[in-house]
Amino acid sequence: MNLLAIETSTELCSAALLRGDDLFVEEAHAPNQHAEHLAPMVRRLLARAGLAPAGMDAFAFGQGPGSFTGLRIACGMAQGLAFGAGRPVVPVPSLVALAEQANASRIVVGLDARMGETYLAAYSRMGGDWEAAIAPGLFARGTLPPLPGRDWVATGSGFDGFDWLRGAYAKQVSHRIEGDLPRAGAVARVAARRLARGEAVPPERAAPLYLRDKVALTTRERQAAK
Q: Tens of pLDDT along 168-186?
């Protein structure tokens, strides 16, 4: 299977190409510069793998939640490549990609959503994929859903940055992974399994997962938060 994946939901710009069992990766820490980095990354990956876009079985992208601009860039790039090559697209939630990277069977994932909120989900590994114990959502202090059971592994910038998030699940979490962000290599691995199960979509049906409809607090909200 040949599959090209893109992940730009955070400040990390990441692309990966899965060629059979070989995984080629290009990454750069590039806040607000994903558009400049991504196309050259894709060209280098294709050259390293000795493949053309038409040689892909599908294109995948981290659909979010995350940076609005980053999600649009990843979705647009995957759609453009897929339309040109006549191939389908596999959207992969970025929170699932983070769970995939954690190398554990029960993962609670929290990404910093800004404005004092977190994008949160919890997943258990079931067979060849992930089953949601907490569906992806946008949460603030005091609105977090209960996390069932114990011995969860926590990961993501939300857990890195928010003491209230760490404290809320302190009894349920046995280990925390620090400093990790969603990566295209994990998107590629998840997408390959989903493609094999027939879960790809036509390019025109691919869409980001936003979870939020605004990007900044109002003046009144900022004052109330002080």
A: 999 999 999 999 999 999 9
